[in-house]
């Protein structure tokens, strides 16, 4: 009986590790797609990584913004056109799971534009909703 219990626990642990690894890769893929869409100037496609809800929270240098549409509007104002968006790179420092459906991401960002190169850090909280990871809190500085 003990052997069966030990084997069952080992199989469960292996399955949980595999799922975590799969979810981590899914999150990294989402961020990579976001970066690619930004660099193409596709702000609307970039925003698909965010939860399309009034509960979306974005915190930047101007303070908190609530809602998908307001966040998109702020991006449009702050980064007008492809030249304003520049070329984006990310450095993903950490992806950590708070539970099976919530993940924390720490990363850095860097924009290369004709006249400047702003850069900073971001923290994200993502939630798995209907099998898809979505950003529901973004704090970028």
Automatic annotation (TrEMBL):
Any coiled-coil ranges, and where? none
- The answer to keyword Transmembrane helix applying to this record is no
Write down the InterPro entries for this protein, in alphabetical order: DUF4440, NTF2-like_dom_sf
Q: Which residues form the signal peptide?
A: 1-18
Keywords in UniProt for this one? Answer: Signal
Domain DUF4440, which positions? 37-135
Q: Which Gene3D superfamilies match?
A: 3.10.450.50
- Identify this protein by name: YybH family protein
């Amino acid at each position: 009986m003990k052997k069966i219990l030990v084997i069952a626990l080992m199989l469960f642990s292996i399955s949980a590790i595999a799922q975590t690894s799969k979810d981590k890769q899914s999150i990294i893929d989402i961020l990579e797609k976001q970066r690619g869409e930004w660099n193409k100037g596709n702000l609307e496609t970039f925003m698909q990584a965010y939860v399309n809800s009034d509960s979306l929270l974005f915190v930047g240098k101007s303070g908190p913004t609530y809602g998908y549409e307001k966040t998109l509007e702020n991006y449009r104002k702050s980064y007008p056109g492809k030249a304003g968006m520049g070329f984006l790179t990310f450095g993903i420092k950490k992806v950590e799971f708070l539970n099976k459906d919530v993940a924390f991401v720490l990363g850095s960002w860097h924009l290369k534009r004709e006249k400047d190169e702003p850069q900073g850090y971001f923290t994200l909280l993502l939630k798995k909703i209907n099998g898809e990871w979505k950003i529901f809190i973004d704090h970028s500085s």
